[in-house]
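Journal club prep — side note

Before the paper discussion, L.F. wants everyone to see what a predicted structure for a comparable chain looks like in token form. Sequence:
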Amino acid sequence: MARGTGSHSLSSLAKRDRAHNVRASAWRLLGYLKPHRRRVTFAMAWLVLSSLNTAANPAITGWIVDIAIKAARTGSGTTGLVIPIIALFISTVLGWYSQRMQILVLGTVGQQALFELRGEVFGKVQDLSVAFFETAESGDIMSRLINDLEQVNSFLAQGFRRVLGALLGFTATLVGMLLVSWRLALVTLLIVPVMFVASSLFGSLARRVFRRRQETIGDVSASLAEDLAGIRVAQAFARTERNRGEFAERNATNRDANIAASAVSAAFPPVLAVISATSTALVAGYGGYLAAGGLVTVGVVVAFFGYSRSFFNAVSQLSSLWAETQSALAGGERVFDLLDTPPEVTDAPDAIDAGRLSGDVDFEHVGFSYGTGPVVLDGIDLHVKAGTTLAIVGPTGAGKSTLINVLARFYDPTAGSVRVDGHDLRTITLSSLRSNLGVVLQDPFLFSGSIAENIRYGRLDATDAEVRAAAEVSRAATFIERLPDGFDTPVGERGVLLSSGQRQLVAFARAVLADPAILVLDEATSSVDTRTESLIQEALAEVLHARTAFVIAHRLSTVRDADRIIVIDHGLIVEDGTYAELLAQGGLFARLHAAQFSDE
């Protein structure tokens, strides 16, 4: 199978200007902090205080040096040092405490914002249409939910605070330098244009390599998810060596992307170190010249060494954080790509809650095709009375499952309409429609947990007695009671601890407990043994009474008792009648029947 279709479909969304606009992504991420603006403001106050301390410390140190030099020259004693030393001590303590408070407050706010964002992303995934999941790879979606969100987490929980702190420290230090000596400040600032150009070039490169890194992580995750899910098939067809090779290619691409990201991250600090050393040398030379000429004191020169160090530490920290920020924004863009994906099937603004339906179904000139593909349903007209069991048969690819997908509104028809109890499906809410539907698939999906939890999945308020009753009706109770833990027996991931027949009976019990007005069986007995099929047929006789049912069947013997059978071929209903009537017609149904029972 060709991987990457889903990744491409999601990645194509990244072409939108909004997702690629770094400022838009940054503001959108910061928008998750808005509900906590009071606490953010409180933390900002501590950030400002911390920045003021950063600017004050070098000036206080220079003050101490000047007083000490004066005392040594005049012999006036060191009593004048008491006040500046106390001031330096208080400034240091305040700086430590303000840093602690900002970490505590903004760290808490960041985690809350991440909690809200993660919930929004998961909710979005729940709302996306089936069509999305048929093209997007689950591994890539998981990478966005885990890896990309983790990058966002680092920004919201710590990166935002550190970037803001470095910016405020940079600003406070700059102001402090200008107040202490504008001449030395100007010398220090000579290097700023060089830093600005280097930072701009670095930021542009970093953004590209970090986004590429996140994309390759998604590709590796998608490959892992698919290969793990299909491990039995891979072993059965001796594809494991080929799969190793394909995974090695994806893993190598991710490795190269990580190396490129690391190389970019490692390249900038040495450049800044050279710029910082150059600036320090300029301050030392020009500061010595000014001090010799009596234009500044020695304490001012000493203070400027501290200011220069603080200034370039702030710049160095900003450069380091800039790499982390670019990584977070790359992850944020991929998360926003997902959030901005519109679901293909949604509730109309004036959609109503249909309540409990009786199950009267009409297909009126229904046409459908998947995207730009060929027509799958071609003008279907079909009326199914409430309480009728309708069997749908036909060759593979004829459109049987598509008819059910349109009924469940996994897709909207491209032509015509589907009505239930007179309501066009597009005029009622998805939740009210699907609460009236029960679906049992050929390969039922069970969730990790107990058998009882899986049966109760469609009706969480069901009592233990109701769960047991549903299992008895579906003929699942017999095998469940033989298990060591009965209904509390864990089923394992995807129900792997149960046989295929047992999984099917549990899925059937789940549908029975939901008590749907319309029951859909999509080849529900085609993959089970004869004995399990017999049990399901017994249960069907009881469950389908006075309930509308759509039964897609491969084994024609299972639809013998259906009230009505339609035969679909190339998206058209070509035959319609009872089992006996269709056999007597000698058409497609009779030929399919003859092919199945030719051995007999």
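L.F.'s comment for the group: Strands lie at 361-369, 375-384, 389-393, 415-420, 423-424, 437-440, 518-522, 548-552, 564-569, 572-577. Keep this in mind when we get to the figures.
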